[in-house]
Amino acid sequence: EVFLGNGVSELITLSLQALCNPGDEILVPSPDYPLWTASVALAGGTPKHYLCDEATAWQPDLEDLESKITENTRGIVVINPNNPTGAVYSRETLKKIVDIARRHDLIIFADEIYEKITYDDVEMINMATLTGDDVLCLTYSGLSKAYRIAGYRAGWLAITGPLSEAKSYLEGIKLLANMRMCANVPAQHAIQAALGGKQSIEDLVLPQGRLGAQMNLAHEGLNSIDGVSAHRASGALYMFAKLDVDKFNITDDEQFALDLLREQKILVSHGTAFNWSSPDHFRLVTLPSVEVLDESINRLGEFLSGYKQNAPSTCELPTVQEMSPAAG
Asked: Each residue of 161-182: pLDDT tens digit?
């Protein structure tokens, strides 16, 4: 049961629309990739967030996860490698999530779009290899990250486990897939070429590779700023950095991001945008070149050296033409 879609985003929305009825609950990590939360709500369900623990390098808090399960819970979203934290989950953690799903008869939604982007020889475990024949697992991946062609809109969904027991759910997915006529046909040729060709990502994530070098610089640079700390990401393309809210008097992380944008023309994403409850984090994208990242992080440090958050500013946002492609 493999479905092709116009990017993983379409397949996430489609598979939740086929499942959720009003009152159904889906467990989503916090912080999350916010499309998951939005898609659950759009489908008529209720997103419930379980905590990922910064103290354990952002591994899921399994006690918190299981405590959120009710008679209305239908599934667990697992984003691994994780956006926005860059965490790669251990085999032990994933096995325990599978055990929880098995005990409570839940579906696992495994968002593995960053599966090939890991650093320092960290092992990435595909969830479907652990679920066996008795836990339904929906695995999402695509071309946009490992193959750097996000604009092609080519993603796929593979469904494994007790398919006969999920017959009506599969029929719903097929019905919705048929209603959109077809996936991106030209991009399907790119899928064949990408999966069957040289895996250039393997060189890029090495310490001397472009992505590896950018991640190293971002980690060292962010942690060199007084009042900023960040776990080194084991995968994906992001750092989820923590701000000393007392030092900077931060009560509104969106205002912090806007203040940085106005003053330095550097765009980061505020942490609460990822359904993180406290205004004490921001996400830095590590895709810019080392030169751009280095300049941007230095300018971030200069900005924070004198920053104290005041009342929300009323000054105008810069236009797109004024903004640097620095660190967003």
From this structure: 999 999 999 999 999 999 988 8
Coil, helix or strand for 230?
coil
Count of Cβ atoms closer than 10 Å to residue 67 Cβ? 11
Residue at 54: amino acid letter = E
Reduced 3-state DSSP string for 108-139: EEEECCCCCCECCCCCCCCCHHHHCCCCCEEE
Q: How many angstroms separate the CA atoms of 82 and 31, rounded? A: 9
DSSP letter for each residue of 28-94: EEES--HHHHHHHHHTT-EEEEEEEEGGGTTEE-HHHHHHT--TTEEEEEEESS-TTT-----HHHH
Whole-number Å distance between alpha carbons of 11 and 243: 34
Quickly count: other Cβ atoms within 10 Å of residue 296's Cβ.
24
**Residue 215, phi then psi, degrees to nearest 5:** -65, -40
**Model confidence pLDDT, tens digit, residues 85-123:** 999 999 999 999 999 999 999 999 999 999 999 999 999
End-to-end CA distance of the chain: 36
SS3 assignment, position 313: coil
**Could you give all domains of the chain from N- to C-terminal order, each with its CATH number?**
2-196 (3.40.640.10), 206-322 (3.90.1150.10)
Is the Cβ–Cβ distance between 233 and 215 less than 8 Å?
A: yes
User: Is residue 262 within 8 Å of residue 317, measured between CB atoms?
Assistant: yes
Report the DSSP pairing between strands 269-270 and 281-285: antiparallel
| Global model pTM greater than 0.90 | yes
Distance CA 172, CA 167 (A): 9
Give residues with Cβ within 8 angstroms of 220, minimum separation 6: none
